[in-house]
């Protein structure tokens, strides 16, 4: 169950990061509210996951999920530039997340 909590925490990290971009400096009430709720939920589920997953592993996987998700949504939603180097680095992040999960089992 801890890995599910960690995945949920990562998804909420993506939520608040995108919400923060959409809030334009907390000037839009709806996206600002989504951002704050996402932050609280993110840390809540991260805390739950830390009951069983080692800190270093959980933190690396959590930030990796957030990084991967924000890169994908940045490209899709905000038309951020795409390059081969970005995809190679993205692939390394995914390999790192997978490796940490497999080595922590």
Question: What does this entry look like structurally?
Answer:
This protein is mostly helical. The protein has one domain. It has 4 helices and no strands. It has helices at 2-23, 29-49, 55-78, 84-104. It is flat, with a radius of gyration of 15 Å. The mean pLDDT is 93.
Q: Keywords, please?
A:
single chain, 105 residues, mainly alpha, 4 helices, 0% strand
Number of helices: 4
Briefly note the structural class of the backbone: mainly alpha
**On the 0-100 scale, what is the average pLDDT?**
93
Strand content: under 5%
Residues in helix, %? over 70%
Note the overall shape. flat
Low-confidence stretches are: none
Element order: H for helix, E for strand: HHHH
From the N-terminal CA to the C-terminal CA, the straight-line distance is: 12 Å
| Biggest sheet layout | none
Number of strands: 0
Q: How many domains make up the coordinates? A: 1
Q: Compute the gyration radius: what is it?
A: 15 Å
Concise overview:
With 105 residues, the protein is mainly alpha-helical. The protein has one domain (2-104). It contains four helices and no strands.
Blueprint (SSEs and pairs):
Layout (H helix, E strand, L loop, with lengths): L1 H22 L5 H21 L5 H24 L5 H21 L1
Helix pairs in contact: 1-2, 1-3, 3-4
